[in-house]
Design a protein that fits this description.
single chain, two-stranded antiparallel sheet, 6 helices, alpha+beta, 220 residues, 8 strands, elongated, five-stranded mixed barrel
Amino acid sequence: MKTTSLRRFAASPLEGGTTPEARQSRFLGVCWSLFAPLLLVFLSASALAQPSVSTSPSASGFRTRFNEAYEARVTRVSDGDTLWVKPLAGGTYRKLRLDGVDAPEICQDDGVAAREALAARLLDQTVTVTERRRDDYGRALVRLRHRNEDVAGWLVREGWAWSYRWRHSDGPFAIEEVLARKDRKGVFASVDAENPRDFRKRHGPCPMPSRSGAKDQPAR
């Protein structure tokens, strides 16, 4: 037992060695072996935290990174929370969906009115786009600013969209929704206004406009 203890003591990087320089060298080696994995984890996390490049290439080579703003002109409004833009720096048209809100489906009560309200505000206007991520349909989920105002917040405050609820959260625009309900604006003029999520659960997505010889297809 004593022999084994002495061998372990002699092999210890802190106590082994016969000179202070040797003990210091071994001590630094132990420190490096302890902190090197932590340093590697930190560098990996920093790399992952960098904004990723958007996966939608453009003919002109114009690319954006998530959370990096760019200027664009609104060319079309599909419904109350979906629109198309053309980046001012060039490239292809982009289909965007406002992040944090849920507007009435186009075939739902007030769906057309919500679309018209958004179009009246933004069509042919220049906006500042910040792409945050992509949804299941490949659309960029974005924060949009027009004349220094958050478009999604304005949409909810005017009563044309709900603050998007997620699990136990009332969403990022819960206060704007409370104010719109209080003032009975937009869809909230009716006490029976149905949340688009519930509408989709009951009816599914709205059908695409019919083409000659083609069946209706769900809209995205």
